[in-house]
Amino acid sequence: MTRGGSAFRSTAATAAMGLVAFAAWRGGGRTDAGPPSPRFGHVFILVEENHDYADVIGNPAMPYLNRLAEEYGLATQYYANTHPSIGNYFMLTVGDTVTNKDDFSGLVTDDNIVRQLLAAGKTWKSYAEDLPSIGYTGDGPGRYARRHNPLSYLSDVVNDSVQRQRLVPFSQLAVDVASRTLPNFGFIVPNLCHDAHSCAADSADQWLQTTIPPLIASPDFQGDGLLIIVFDEAKDAATGGGGRVVWVAVSPKSKRGYESATRYQHESTLRLAAEGLGLTRFPGAAAAAPNMAEFFESQRKTP
């Protein structure tokens, strides 16, 4: 494998990052934080739960995810932002932790990925396993956890009857793959067993191995797709706020067998999704976050 990133940061680089952060605080839009990411037509974020990096990489109970990590891009110094889960999900979609209360049931009015997608004329869906019905914004029942479905809290979704219809059961993903109607942005929510929250790691890996290959093999994904598989938080560690976790980028545009030791957090994933889809405003902390272009080959942008 090749290895990217560096633990060294010069004084000049540190100062530059400070200017980037100040610009984001002043303007709240896009800032330059490295070379741009390639363009993607379809970006999917799939979140697993509550496992440290060391509990996943090299774990024989998770052969499929390890194979993806070896074949595509792996961030070896990626850290969650907080404990418990819910704040990490909001950082991935809003650019702010919003709350650390898992029983939160409020409305999130902050700038967010859905707002920016709609402003740019892009499409989106949340695919949630065990969601009882299309447009459902409640919690439960069973193994569905609303706190793992952050788009269901956004005012842009909850207050709009059309956008609520983009909250769909996970089974819709297979339909959209077959009909070639994948959205530009998809947020994939396994249930509490298949995200490794309440069941053993091998259950999550077997679910990934069963459900993800058809998406990766689909013509639309093979043209310009990106799938990010990331864990929301480490089980106990608090480094970076939420501990060191696994982050894997699967794409035909990925550098193969690539590892990076650059330090990233969830706001960089949000920036990657937004920038990769051609958005010009990055919500919250994503505006000043380091981008993740190093994981991809340089090539022509798609229209």
Essential attributes:
single chain, 303 residues, alpha/beta, nine-stranded mixed sheet
Detailed description of the structure:
Helix content is 31%, strand content 17%. By secondary structure, it is α/β, with parallel strands linked by helices. It has a single domain (2-295), classed as Alkaline Phosphatase, subunit A (3-Layer(aba) Sandwich). The protein has a nine-stranded mixed β-sheet with strand order 1-9-3-8-7-2-6-4-5. Helix 4 packs parallel to helix 12.
Low-confidence stretches: 1-28
Overall mean confidence score, pLDDT:
90
- Shape-level CATH architecture: 3-Layer(aba) Sandwich
Shape: globular
**Rg over alpha carbons:** 18 Å
Identify the CATH homologous superfamily: Alkaline Phosphatase, subunit A
User: Kindly, what is the distance between the CA atoms of the first and last residues, rounded to a whole number of angstroms?
Assistant: 31 Å
Layout of SSEs?
Blueprint: E1 2-4, H1 11-27, E2 42-48, H2 53-56, H3 63-71, E3 73-79, H4 85-93, H5 113-119, E4 124-128, H6 155-158, H7 161-164, E5 167-169, H8 172-179, E6 185-189, H9 201-211, H10 213-217, H11 219-224, E7 225-231, E8 244-250, E9 258-265, H12 266-276
Parallel strand pairs: 1-9, 2-6, 2-7, 3-9, 4-5, 4-6
Antiparallel strand pairs: 3-8, 7-8
Helix pairs in contact: 4-12
